[in-house]
Amino acid sequence: MKLDIRIRNGLDQPNLQQTVTVRTATALTRLVPKLGYVSLSLSPVTRREGGETECRISARLSRGGTVQVKSSDAEPVAAAQQAVERLRRAVLRECDRRAKPANRASIRRPATWHHMGEGPRWRSSAPS
């Protein structure tokens, strides 16, 4: 899994990059075989100090497809943690969805008619 973290202008906290990197990598450790590339972006929603911080994460799955989540909070680390937790749940949900076979055969099976001269009847499996 390749992890790309970008922190936009206005988020001047010491060790923010390192803290977000360590926490993100730790939280996604179990999902490494399912993830190919993860991009995390932290940016201020407003330019004023004390405003909200938005965290957007886009993950490319190893078997194809992408999952995108976002979260916002007053604290950048909290926004990142919320987004990482949402990403974890979304990736697991997407992988479970892809693993289950589509059970549509019984719903989409066409009706079978049997013609015996007196008109259409449903074909039954019971002996006549």
Please describe the topology of this protein.
Elements lengths: L1 E6 L8 H12 L7 E10 L8 E9 L4 E8 L2 H24 L5 H4 L4 E3 L4 E3 L6
Parallel strand pairs: 1-2
Antiparallel strand pairs: 2-3, 3-4, 5-6
Helix pairs in contact: 1-2
Task: List the defining traits of the structure above.
128 residues; alpha+beta; Double Stranded RNA Binding Domain; two-stranded antiparallel sheet
Describe the structure.
This protein has helices at residues 16-27, 76-99, 105-108, and strands at 2-7, 35-44, 53-61, 66-73, 113-115, 120-122. The protein contains 3 helices and 6 strands, in the order E-H-E-E-E-H-H-E-E. The protein has one domain: Ribosome hibernation promotion factor-like (Double Stranded RNA Binding Domain). It is an alpha+beta fold. The chain has a 4-stranded mixed sheet with strand order 1-2-3-4, with helices on one face. A two-stranded antiparallel sheet has the order 5-6. The radius of gyration is 25 Å and the shape is elongated. Helix 1 (16-27) runs parallel beside helix 2 (76-99). The model has no long low-confidence stretch (mean pLDDT 83). Strand 5 (113-115) and strand 6 form a beta hairpin.
> Uncertain segments of ≥5 residues (pLDDT<50)?
none
Rounded average pLDDT: 83
Number of self-contained structural domains: 1
Morphology call: elongated
What proportion of the residues is helical, as a percent range?
Answer: 25-40%
CATH class: Alpha Beta
Note the gap between the termini.
63 Å
Instruction: Let me know the number of strands.
Output: 6
Taken in chain order, the helices and strands follow as: EHEEEHHEE
* CATH topology term: Double Stranded RNA Binding Domain
Helix/sheet category:
alpha+beta
What is the gyration radius calculated from CA atoms? 25 Å
